[in-house]
BTB domain-containing protein
Amino acid sequence: QKRENLSPLCLIPTVTSPREEQQLLASTSKPVVKLLHNRSNNKYSYTSTSDDNLLKNIELFDKLALRFHGRLLFLKDVLGDEICCWSFYGQGRKIAEVCCTSIVYATEKKQTKVEFPEARIFEETLNILIYETPRGPDLALLEATGGAAGGGGAGRGDDEENREHRVRRIHVRRHITHDERPHGQQIVFKD
């Protein structure tokens, strides 16, 4: 009897086409966490920490999938244009995105830098759990947490409908010159 109640399998579909991705998103009632990682898109050489950070992103994805596989649908995508990008979907639409790559201008050449924004990924994973219930997210909770509305404290009105359809995108800052980087700090900006 105990064996029948346990679900020891954690299956993670790998997206093989954009059409398949759309079908998977449309066919599930669970929130979705998708990791796109594509090392074949290496236009520039990678920084010394990029390989480790890419592996850390993949390992975190696997850990989250094992922990939340009954509550969230996890997808892997190895075909997209980005090198490492997390996407979070609720009720069939993209809610947030965390891109982990940037171009760094070193003294001699451009390099691709892969970051590991662990705290941001955890935050967005927890935020996407708001969409777990089929009745829709609690608007008061979304406002309080800065969910799909893009920030808390905004009043309701005509702008509310537009805010609910926006995607929060978190990107590591693109085109960082060597002189712009604060020593030992990660630079992140929101669109």
User: Anything to note?
Assistant: Helices lie at 2-5, 18-27, 50-68, 118-128, 139-145, 158-164.
